[in-house]
Design goal:
176 residues; alpha/beta; Alpha/beta knot; six-stranded parallel sheet; two-stranded antiparallel sheet; 8 strands; 36% helix; globular
Length: 176
């Protein structure tokens, strides 16, 4: 399933870690890219380094107008919010549409317009929670767990084991 994530409300200088986690979660759970509403070279560079080492074709892009991204997206537009319909009530319907999905995740203050511009306002529980958690659950439900077996064909690969850490491949850190 083709999924793009729109990250709303990124505050440069404050949200690097959280937005990086949105990107890494999107990548690991099968999305193809994240579009951010604020340019942050630190987030872009962190994600590029992960993709270079661990593989995959994931990208981070910037859009001056989040409204244009939503308005012009061809496919199913899903806003993750704690005020929407329960995820388990709509996941199959979204998946069965067999169209690209725009998953919209925001911070604490999402513009009210977003709620009216989307096809679905979807809740992962009805309590305050992280957009990273909501995104991972949405992607898992849409992909029905298949994303957990993706092969990213990176130079680094984790070798599963009961205890300890084992990684195959070579990591070449960027010299600073």
């Amino acid at each position: 399933m083709e999924v793009t994530v729109l990250r709303l409300g990124h505050r440069v200088g404050r949200d690097k870690r959280l937005s990086t986690h949105v990107c890494l979660t999107a990548r690991a759970f099968g999305a193809g890219k994240v579009i951010m509403d604020a340019r942050d070279p630190r987030v872009e560079e962190s994600v590029k380094e992960v993709v270079a080492a661990w593989g995959g074709g994931f990208t981070v892009e910037y859009a001056e107008s989040w409204k244009s991204v939503i308005k012009n997206f061809v496919g199913v537009k899903v806003h993750l919010t704690m005020y929407g319909l329960p995820l388990d009530d709509v996941a199959a319907e979204i998946r069965d549409a067999k169209k690209p999905v725009l998953a919209i995740v925001g911070g604490p203050k999402v513009p009210s317009e977003v709620y009216h511009m989307v096809d679905y306002n979807v809740a992962v529980g009805s309590q305050p929670h992280s957009e990273v958690a909501a995104l991972s659950l949405l992607l898992d439900r849409l992909n029905q767990g298949e994303e957990l077996g993706l092969d990213f064909k990176g130079s680094l690969t984790i070798i599963p084991q009961a205890c300890g850490k084992k990684v195959a491949g070579t990591y070449r850190s960027k010299s600073k």
